[in-house]
Amino acid sequence: MSTTKKIAGAALAAALGVGTLAACGGGAKNEEGAAASGAPKSKTITLVSHDSFVVSEPVLKEFEQQSGYTVKVLKSGDAGAALNQEILTKGSPRGDVFFGVDNTLLSRALDNGIFTPYEAKGLAGVKPEYLLDPQHRVTPVDSGDICVNYDKAYFADKKIAPPQTLDDLLKPEYKNLLVTENAATSSPGLGFLLASVGKYGEDGWKDYWSKLKANGVEVVDGWEQAYNERFSGSAGGKKAKGDRPLVVSYASSPPVEVLYGDPQPAEAPTGVATGTCFRQVEFAGLLKGAKNEEGGKALIDFLIGKKFQEDMPLQMFVNPVVKDAKLPEVFTKHGVVVEKPENVAPETIAKNRDQWVKAWSSIVVK
After folding, report:
1. By C-alpha distance, which of 242, 248, 253 is closest to 222?
2. What is the pLDDT of residues 245-298, one digit of tens each?
3. Buried b (16+ CB within 10 A) or exposed e, 137-174
4. Does residue 68 sit in helix, strand or coil?
5. CA 52/CA 37 separation, integer angstroms
6. Using CB atoms within 10 A of its CB, is residue 240 exposed (0-12), middle (13-18) or buried (19+)?
7. Among 118, 144, 216, 332, which residue is least crowded by beta carbons within 10 Å?
8. Are 248 and 180 a contacting pair, CB within 8 Å?
9. Burial class of residue 346 in the structure, from the number of CB atoms within 10 Å of its CB (0-12 exposed, 13-18 middle, 19+ buried)
10. Alpha carbon distance 142, 115 (integer Å)
11. At 149, phi and psi to the nearest 5?
């Protein structure tokens, strides 16, 4: 899977107008240029991440001032590509901490042994359902739900109730209304496939997709095309004259439509079918062979600290994993709580992902 549970990375960059947060200097040397080994400890922490990592400048600066470290962010494409690079450089990592491995890639990362176990300070405050690695090789940082979104105006005009479950999407009243992303090329596309696996099991998900294809599902390469071109409910889709009122996106998409609406609407123009969701969880880990291991530990502590956790929703449009972190008002007012998302065990995903995607492609894309 590429980037997790959130508005796609390219869209984030465009919406927020941000680039890589990078400090001067390499992680292997201290401020005077001395080698880190046998010399004063490096004051630079290098965070390797996918392209969608964002933190507000004041929050990052506060951490740097309090810790004495400078953070350099090395963005490395989508999560899958970034993880591949760390596996290839195992033992001689490009940084100190890796952020962005999610539950669809977790077993692969752990099986390749790229992380050093570290039990972060504040871990007791993390919701227990996100603690997927009892050895603490990775620390949960955020969660997000991939869900079908619907265009409220379309369904109100047609006097049709919007779908709420995966089963609903097979009904004739929703024929030719849904657009989804290719599971072989897109993070939300794969997440939606996994939702069907979680719901119907190994014996039923293929039949579900055969029926969904017969009901006119459209498949496009990625989230940007699906949401901002084909979906009739988004600001981008309206401009592009999209004609699909159902799209696979994120539970956080409606608050984003409000936040960046011009003018800002009083109510989100899109809704979430909460019975169609798959939950992504993203993790950070201390890279084995990190040049600044102590700094890396401090950064992981920061990532699950309340300051970062409460900053994160409006930066990356994901949910905190810490129990006492508060969501911003735009999330609580215009977002939804997904009570029972579909889940598939990371080790099951790792074992079956490639064959699932191949089978899915033969059913839907052929």
Report:
1. 248
2. 999 999 999 999 999 998 999 999 999 999 999 999 999 999 999 999 999 999
3. bbbbbbbbbbbbbbbbebbeeeeeebbbebebbbeeeb
4. coil
5. 32
6. middle
7. 332
8. yes
9. buried
10. 18
11. -105, 150
